[in-house]
Amino acid sequence: MVAKRIIPCLDVKDGRTVKGVNFLQLQDVGDAVELGKLYAEQGADELVYLDISATVEGRNTFTSLVECIALNINIPFTVGGGISTIDDAARLLDVGADKISINSAAVRNPSLIDEIASKYGSQFVVLAVDAKSIDGKYFITTHGGRQMTERELFEWVREGQERGAGEILLTSMDHDGTRCGYPCELFAELSEQLSIPIIASGGAGSVSDIVDVLSKGRADAALAASIFHYGEITVGELKKELMKHGINVRI
């Protein structure tokens, strides 16, 4: 049985880790590199760094920060935010990123997925999807959840898989930062429709939330931020609790 992954997420603005609700009302929670080192020491399987203001402000992800992360952290990490061309992806790979996450640019130009996957391999491409529920259906949002699109969630992730994405990182914008749990039925349905791994994001407030999304939701990995940033539980403690519930994780 493939082990489930625990992935702390570090939303980065101006080089600092921040946390908010629905990507708004941001609070500084620490240095991006030091927090990443701490989570690696605690047993995180991977890390995700998202420059949450890059697309909104029209900037590229800070290459220098990614280089610093690569020099200081010994577990795989994904970088996203402001990646809109294959040259952006190449620059991040060259300085040490293990994977890149694309979102708004892929919605705008879906062939970007094909282009990056063809050059570097699907394992390098994480398709990040920010979805919002409207009248019982999920639609894609862009620019950190600020702009709605007419693209339906299931149609878009199937297309992303076909174009070469190696993983789907799905954030429920209705749940992000609320700490009220993940929409497990949504993730279970995604698992039915896709053959690539699914990372669940948005809503982790307790151990039981993560247990639910990895079991009932059938997600391959759980991404969380607040419960780690505010010291409520360590990654190692979480993994021990997951094992008690019969969930296979790497210790």
How would you describe this structure to a colleague?
The protein is of the alpha/beta class and 251 residues long. The chain has one domain: TIM Barrel (Alpha-Beta Barrel). It is 37% helix and 29% strand. Strands 1-4-5-6-7-10-11-12 form an eight-stranded parallel beta barrel, surrounded by six helices. A hairpin with a 2-residue loop joins strand 2 and strand 3. The longest helix is centred in the first third of the chain and has 11 residues. About 2% of the residues have low confidence.
Summarize the structure.
With 251 residues, this protein is of the alpha/beta class.
Question: How large is the radius of gyration?
Answer: 16 Å
The largest pleated sheet is described as: 8 strands, parallel, barrel
The best one-word shape is globular
How is the quaternary structure best described?
Answer: single chain
User: What is the CATH first-level class name?
Assistant: Alpha Beta
What value does the average pLDDT take?
A: 87
Q: CATH H-level name... which superfamily?
A: Aldolase class I
The SSE string, one letter per element, is EEEHEHHEHEHHEEEHEHEHEHH
> Could you give the order of strands across the largest sheet?
1-4-5-6-7-10-11-12
Distance between the termini: 15 Å
Please work out how many helical segments DSSP would assign. 11
Under CATH, the topology is which?
A: TIM Barrel
The helical percent reads 25-40%
When the domains are counted, the total is 1
Segments where pLDDT lies below 50 for 5+ residues? Answer: 21-25
Question: What CATH architecture would you give?
Answer: Alpha-Beta Barrel
Strand content: 25-35%
Derived structural class: alpha/beta
Q: Total strand count, please?
A: 12
